[in-house]
């Protein structure tokens, strides 16, 4: 779901495996997948639909 939305918005995606990062695993293990932006403190955690994803992304 993320890739088509990001392409339409002209955004680059960086994929991080939450289970390989101790901090991310602690924060998000119950909410995978997670979409985060560098310019926002709050991440978009599962469950979300394409409408919420569009509103979250710049």
Brief account:
It contains three helices and two strands. The chain has 58 residues and is mainly alpha-helical.
Mean pLDDT over all positions: 93
Largest sheet: 2 strands, antiparallel
Give the uncertain stretches in residue-range form. none
What is the H/E string? HHEEH
CA radius of gyration is 11 Å
Total helices: the number is: 3
Fold and architecture overview:
The chain is mainly α and 58 residues long. The chain has one domain. The protein has helices at 2-9, 22-28, 50-56; strands spanning 34-35, 44-45. The two termini are 16 Å apart.
What features would you highlight for this structure?
single chain; 58 residues; mainly alpha; two-stranded antiparallel ribbon; 38% helix
Q: What's the SSE blueprint?
A:
Layout (H helix, E strand, L loop, with lengths): L1 H8 L12 H7 L5 E2 L8 E2 L4 H7 L2
Antiparallel strand pairs: 1-2
């Amino acid at each position: 779901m993320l890739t088509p939305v990001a392409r339409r918005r002209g955004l680059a995606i960086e994929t991080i495996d939450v289970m390989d990062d101790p901090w991310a695993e602690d924060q998000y293990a119950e909410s995978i997948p997670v979409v985060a932006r560098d310019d926002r403190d709050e991440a978009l955690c599962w469950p979300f639909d394409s409408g919420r994803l569009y509103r979250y992304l710049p």
